[in-house]
Specification:
elongated, 11 helices, eight-stranded mixed sheet, alpha+beta, 16 strands, five-stranded mixed beta barrel, 2 domains, 430 residues
């Protein structure tokens, strides 16, 4: 066997226009059908599969190769008699083989079901399941579209620190650790940094992991999660809502065009592409919930039960605006018409919150007052507040939970399905 490992084609490139050509294909053995005088191998890669025709007299070693072994084969492309394939490869040479050791921890073909925990323990192998790998192809497409859309709107991609010296939003749910004899934290948000950056860079966005030390064992929470954060000078929360609606719709259109998912049977995703997302005020939500038998008090946060009921009333995308100011972080701007309210929004998809954002308070005196009102020490935010004395423009922004968006678009029931190596209170490996 030759040591050189180099393929010439992926499976999806093998078509009738190259009939008679010699190619090298690399992948893993998904299936074997041995009928004596001939062996049919199905070799898969990330793009698809190809049937390989083997003469067992010429290649007797093929019968000794376990399924799921990595293999590099070469041969000529010929027409296939199989209904599901137009072409196949007639084996001429086995270039390289890396054998799999059985029994495998899970069945990557998906024919035998495994629990999510077992699949995550063998995630690299789990990704050989086409239905699983497709989720991450979709995620990759979504990320490309998010970047392209924001870059087209003059946003600049930035990278902010993930090791920080103080709580970025004053929250308690931070991972704390020793940093060269100092106390440090893992960032739960880029909020303060992205606000500072609009002072000069005007419009910024970041796609990065963030961390929250919450013992939340739900299908929608993780301790490490990916967020798409944007911030822009001289825009308000209405502008940010428009921008993020455009981002989400472009993602839906792009995934739909990729043909990886069939959105034709999903009414709310079809509707999402056309009209504007509905905008409901917090007060409207309270009234709707009361009308539908939910016990809610104006001024309180919406419970999981309330959000699920709202999700049944509004099963697609919708904004909730004008939240009570006391429910929002110190950097959110108060509503000019009613200072009890805030110029903020959440974007929901059914019961699930995808985005939280708003116009930012850019008066440092008011920020100090809000910090004190929320029991936070303004002195601990002095490095942030000094930037506002350098001519901070009015600005607005938001954060989008990328994992939750992919979970929703793919119909996954658990956010761990759409994260390669998820982290939660009980999982820190592989």
């Amino acid at each position: 066997m030759k040591e050189k490992i180099k393929r010439t084609h992926f499976a999806n490139e093998l078509k009738e226009n190259i009939l008679g050509e010699k190619v090298k294909v690399g992948g893993w053995i998904e299936d074997v059908r041995d009928i004596g005088k001939i062996i049919f191998l199905v070799i898969k890669d990330i793009t698809g599969s190809i049937q390989v025709i083997v003469d067992p007299e010429e290649f007797p070693q093929i019968r000794e190769i376990p399924r799921q072994s990595s293999i590099l084969v070469s041969g000529k492309i010929q027409k296939s008699k199989a209904k599901e394939m137009t072409v196949e490869l007639k084996l001429e040479e086995v270039v390289a083989i890396y054998l799999s050791k059985h029994p495998l921890p899970i069945d990557p073909t998906g024919r035998l079901e495994s629990s999510l925990d077992k699949r995550l323990d063998a995630r690299a192998l789990d990704l050989r399941n086409e239905n699983v790998s497709k989720l991450f192809v979709i995620r990759s497409i979504a990320l490309q579209i998010v970047r392209k859309t924001l870059l087209e709107m003059s946003f600049l991609e930035v990278n902010t620190p993930k090791i920080i010296g103080s709580a970025s939003e004053g929250g308690a749910n931070l991972f704390e650790f020793d940093y060269f004899k100092n106390k440090a934290y893992l960032a739960q948000s880029p909020q303060l940094y992205k606000e500072q950056l609009v002072l000069a860079l005007d419009r910024v966005f970041e796609i990065a992991p963030y961390f929250r030390a919450e013992k939340s064992n739900t299908v929608r929470h993780l301790t490490e999660f990916y967020s798409v954060d944007i911030e822009a000078a001289f825009l308000d929360h209405y502008d940010i809502m428009e921008i993020m609606e455009r981002v989400i719709k472009n993602v839906i259109i792009g995934i739909n065009d990729s043909a990886l998912l069939d959105f034709t049977t999903n009414d709310f995703l079809n509707k999402a592409i056309e009209p504007k997302f509905p905008r409901l005020t917090y007060q409207t939500c309270i009234e709707e919930l009361k009308e539908n038998g939910e016990c809610v008090t104006y001024g309180d946060d919406l419970s999981d039960s309330s959000l699920r009921k709202l999700g049944r009333l509004h099963p697609g995308f919708y904004f909730i605006t004008e939240w009570p100011l006391k429910l929002k972080p110190f950097y959110i701007l108060e509503n000019k018409r009613d200072p009890f309210l805030s110029d903020s929004f959440d974007l929901q998809i059914g019961y699930l919150e995808l985005i939280s954002g708003g116009s930012r308070q850019h008066d440092p005196t008011k920020i100090r007052n809000r910090l004190a009102e929320q029991g936070l020490n303004p002195d601990k935010f002095s490095e942030h507040l000094k930037v506002f004395d350098w001519g901070m423009p009015p600005h607005a922004g938001c954060g989008l939970g990328l994992d939750r968006l992919i979970m929703s678009l793919t119909g996954s029931m658990n956010v761990r399905e759409v994260v390669l190596y998820p982290r939660d209170p009980y999982r820190i490996s592989p």
